[in-house]
Amino acid sequence: MPAASPLAPNYAWFKSSHSGGNTTECLEAAFSPSAVLIRDSKQPERRHVVVQARAWADFLTGMHRAW
Predict the structure, then answer these.
(1) Would the pLDDT of 55 be above 60?
(2) What does the alpha-carbon distance between residue 35 and residue 22 come to, in Å, rounded to a whole number?
């Protein structure tokens, strides 16, 4: 299970281009060298979830296969 970690202000957070860009009703992601960080765009000051890079790649592969 992914673990929460303290806020990481030094990362470049982004939203999916499918979210419309200006909406606050989505998730934001940032990349570190070994993980993907995910947070709620409505509350960016709160803690975020850290997913190891390999787990993120496996998730994306599974999603791609499902479509």
Answers:
(1) yes
(2) 25
Q: Which domain holds residue 20?
A: 10-66
Residue 48 lies in a domain: yes
Which residue, 64, 3, 62, 34, is CA-closest to 11? 34
Structure tokens at 41: 């765009």
What CA–CA distance (Å, rounded) separates 8 from 22?
A: 21
| Closest C-alpha to 34, from 56, 63, 10 | 56
Residue 20 domain-assigned? yes
The pTM assigned to this predicted structure is 0.70
Residue 31, class by beta-carbon neighbours within 10 Å (0-12 exposed, 13-18 middle, 19+ buried)?
middle
DSSP H/E element including 49: strand 48-52
